[in-house]
Lrp/AsnC family transcriptional regulator (Pseudobowmanella zhangzhouensis), 154 residues
Amino acid sequence: MKLDKFDKQILRTLQQDATVSMAELSNHVGLSHTPCWRRVKRLEKDGFIQRKVTLLNNKKLNLGVSVFIYVSLKNHDETSLNRFEAAVQDIDEIVECHTTSGDRDYLLKVVVESIEEYELLLKSKLTHLPSVDHISSTFALKQVKYTTELPIKG
């Protein structure tokens, strides 16, 4: 499905504020209410809009330590990869998991309260993930940029 300028403007607006009313959204993008509503429903049905969420302030929740972790696995067969990927789903502190190219297999992002909490997580869960060979952790010192908005062109 090809997106036109109205679809893209709807997506940009909803990325900034998913709570905007349909009346405000339609006014903002220059469509009447019903066509705008139909476009939003189509964008949802076609998977462009996955879900609407509330973004939380991690520091207010005392979750101010972000750790980026490269993981290398011992085995690279399909079963080992699937077991690892299933296991990371059960660890709440892992907020992102990406497969990567190069000599490392995965990049994880972990959010915790403290370095001590990360050490406990590392010892009790991360090193016990299936097929883990090597873990390399890097602590974020300061978040320079943060956005949840994708760069929709056009």
